[in-house]
Amino acid sequence: MQRANELRSDIENWSSIxxxxxxxxxxxxxxxxxxxxxxxxxxxxxxxTLDALEFxxxxxxxxxxxxxxxxxxxxxxxxxxxDFVAILLRMYLRWxxxxxxxxxxxxxxxxxxxxxxxxxxxxxxxxxxxxLKSEDGVHRLVxxxxxxxxxxxxTSFAQVEILPEVEDAAEIEIAQKDIRMDVFRAAGxxxxxxxxNSTAVRITHIPxxxxxxxxxxxxxxxxxENAMKVLRSRLxxxxxxxxxxxLAAMRGDYVKAEWGSQIRSxxxxxxxxxxxxxxNYEQGNADAVLDGGLDNFIxxxxxxxxxxxx
Length: 310
What we know:
Helix content: 25-40%
Oligomer: single chain
Radius of gyration: 23 Å
Largest sheet: 8 strands, mixed
Shape: globular
Strand order of the largest sheet: 2-3-1-5-4-9-10-11
């Protein structure tokens, strides 16, 4: 039913734009100067709407239309990298707000001095994964460090992980004997406990060694469900990557992806620039990008077909 509703909405959107184009052509044929200003406005609006519809057409992957799980992890750079994670979190929250997507933080570990060590959240809404899959990889920040008393330039790194949300437990089967669950008290800022009961959950998948934890819900059951959701998504991604490697090896074009090569750089000093190293798309107004202006980078990524239509 959900898929039917999505298709029905698509049909209505394209039918509406077709009707507006037809109406505009009829008005143009009237050759009435009094309608010129109104027609120009309508044509501009039609073009914007058409661009948005064509953008969505590029999201044709099997998981593109669903929700996403977004994880941010501080990398090299000490306190600066943890502050960078906080900056990226704000950027994605602002982007999701502009897109009308709902966000829920499932787990967050704050830095000892400032920033965030790691955070995991779900981004819910149509095409959330299709949009965000372009963000997966290492991000690099160059700026004058606010944590350096000498005000020197620092480079810091953060890992962005994007996973498709896997709702169907039957799709990724996880045997009870393969997991170990630990419970602990959820901790807030400053080491204060959110509540006295042990509601936070940490799940270890023994065969793969994957560890996930959730602590932002008030009940142990909710945290366990969210942790299992993240675990299923990570196992799904491992299987997907393995299939891609096997197919690429059969085609003879598989190149091993090495850790450490950043996909995007955010330079705030000595000049402002954000550049995506996969598409070479760049933008001079870094502040606008960090305020949630990601659509141009996502558009460039999808149009370049960097992901091979995963």
